[in-house]
Please model this.
Amino acid sequence: MTAAYWPSHVVMEVRDASKTYLTGPNEVHALADMTLALRAGELTGIVGPSGSGKTTFLMIAGLLEPPTTGEVRFKDQLIADPATKLNSLRDFRRTHVGFIFQKANLIPFLTALENVQLALEINDAHPKAARARARELLAQFGLDQREDNYPSQLSGGEQQRVSIARALANNPVLLLADEPTAALDGTRGRQVMEAFRTLADEQRVAVCVVTHDPRWSDIFDRIVEMSDGRMTAAKPGGAQASRLKL
Ligand SMILES: Nc1ncnc2c1ncn2[C@@H]1O[C@H](COP(=O)(O)OP(=O)(O)OP(=O)(O)O)[C@@H](O)[C@H]1O
Ligand SMILES: [Mg+2]
Model:
């Protein structure tokens, strides 16, 4: 697969996907008939009530869970279907996908700086270059004074910002974020959303953000609504409206 131009700029597409979890005798239909393409340079918001399948969609689009039926395509080529062993995609994920989880998920025995640096070094960055880039990313999210703190010494919002810096470390072409601003105050939250907007606009990253926060609707290109594992609506977000006015 090349990084060159590809038709329609679709980075990742989840097509006709469903996800059923078995918990004992019960089946949970977490996702049903979901088709959604995430395009280069597009910032997509996903909204919906608790349990509606938002995280499940991100896990499938980010190749962390296989779909039960349907498929996932990267730049128009099949990359995952129900038979795919996702372990085989670990290297691909590391170089192409940035994931920000609902919980910060930092490695507890590494400092903030080391957490970000490790993401780069696993991807073969030289330790010195990795350190410099990790510093730069932490500073971008206002954490330059927190580099040497361990996660347990950081507030929830600070931990979340470290995990955002970590997700961006390897310049992913697809960024998936699960309620990244839930632990942040309004100013920090906006900063993070604006950083996502810039990544989409300037680096053509496909960004998909699950959020409950109506304050960001002006920043999205489109807002996808989910309910009971299905997509119930897809509407233009405020960013499209402001472009149309230009
Ligand atoms: N690993 C799992 N095993 C069993 N059921 C699961 C699993 N993960 C999710 N589910 C179920 O699938 C449904 C969708 O869950 P999901 O986490 O995608 O919802 P969500 O929209 O992200 O909700 P929230 O806003 O609360 O984070 C829920 O009913 C949930 O209980
Ligand atoms: Mg969720």
Summary: Residues 8-104+153-245 form a domain with the Rossmann fold fold (CATH 3.40.50.300). The mean pLDDT is 92. DSSP finds seven helices and ten strands in the chain. The two ends are 36 Å apart (CA to CA).
